[in-house]
Amino acid sequence: MKFVEEYRDGRVAAHYAALLARSVTRPWTVMEVCGGQTHAIVRFGIDQLLPEGVTLAHGPGCPVCVTPVEMIDKAIEIAATDRAILCSFGDMLRVPGSSRDLLAVKARGGDVRIVYSPLDALQVARENPQREVVFFAVGFETTAPANAMAAYQAKRAGLANFSLLVSQVLVPPAIESILAAPGNRVQAFLAAGHVCAVMGIDAYQPLVRRYRLPIVVTGFEPLDILQGVAMCVRQLERGEARLENQYSRVVRRAGNAPAQALIREVFEVIPRRWRGIGEIPASGLGLSAAYAEYDAERRFGTARPRAEEQSECIAGLVLQGARKPPDCPAFGTRCTPEHPLGVTMVSSEGACAAYHRYRRPVTESA
Amino acid sequence: MCLAVPGRIVSIAEAAPLMRVGKVDFGGVAREVNLAYVPEAVVGDYVLVHVGFALSLIDEAEAQRVFGYLQEIEEIEAVNGAKEAP
User: Fold this and answer.
1) Residues of chain A with pLDDT > 90: what percent?
2) CB A262, CB A255: distance < 8 Å
3) Which of A162-171, B12-21, B49-58 is least confident?
4) Domains of chain A by range and CATH?
5) Is CATH 3.40.50.1100 the right assignment for the domain spanning B5-84?
6) Which residue does chain B place closest to A224, by CA atoms?
7) Is the pLDDT reported for residue B84 higher than 80?
8) Residue A68 in 3-state DSSP?
9) In terms of CA atoms, which chain B residue is nearest residue A258?
């Protein structure tokens, strides 16, 4: 497929590896924020192409993983309600709530439907006027335009039986919370390219200035990631701290103006709780006053935070890049994709799932 | 979740600006895609699609930069190497 295969060329990748090998003089830690990038790194073995001193830390950019447990419980509660249909992206179904998951509710007769797009959920609402149809609107900025459009079209059509259970989160506040944490080891960031395709890149400039570190907006194919790392390392070695855009074929400086306009109309910035991490100020989106009537929490009750689950799972540390999946004593034994202890093992973008799929039985130390 | 796939627009059904849709070809499989967020897109353009929405036009000239970067750096290294040589 055009714009995919050419960015997986092994010869060019080897050139990038050689460039990195001769430019590194000290150890550096670079964090990729997005779970999609983590997945590509582990799948294609990009971390193994890097010189010994360059470490990739995996970040919190997996929306499925950071959706707080009370939102999962609320989705489960709605799905178990007689008149309701809960529509969701497929990877939310196996995410553990505090006592069960959506798949278990579906197995017991709950009407849970997997959709590809939020607009599919809107169609379900049109076809079932006697039922309450709720779309589980999770995601980062990349998914916000789609979720905003579902709300906009519902309002425009006066679709009264449709609502959204919103758990939208934002990347820059999550980066800031990692940088501000005591003992932070991350010296440069690969910013998630698709988030920036929507929001533009200017939101990262204050972080670059305040924390004096390189941030490189980066794509998702192997060569994109290698170039992003090379751009970070070049800056680090030269003592620079700049915002650069590796993914210029897709990301414009100002982002997508019509998408931002609809996001501003439908949503407002609010604090959000991140599973395994805790509350981060101004780190999410909720429906604006003009769209409050489409808020599923208004119809079905507010999702109330509860104590974080206790288990040997270290998903919170994995999500913040402090530990890698094989560091967990339960990894691959008591915790597998079939019987997950934590969300990072469930989601296809979770770091634990990526290591489990591509790095077994060869462990990291082998 | 932020996975997005490049595809080529093969047709556009004109409608109100926020309701614009088209058919996008992903390596032989065509799907309907919402084009509300790429008002400038025309048939033949490549777009990046996420959960049924085109989020960005792909710039074909910029798409070559990942290959040009290596050469740029090698040229800089060659100049610096020449300067440092006794």
Assistant:
1) 88
2) no
3) B12-21
4) 1-312 (3.40.50.11740), 315-358 (no CATH)
5) no
6) B66
7) no
8) coil
9) B37
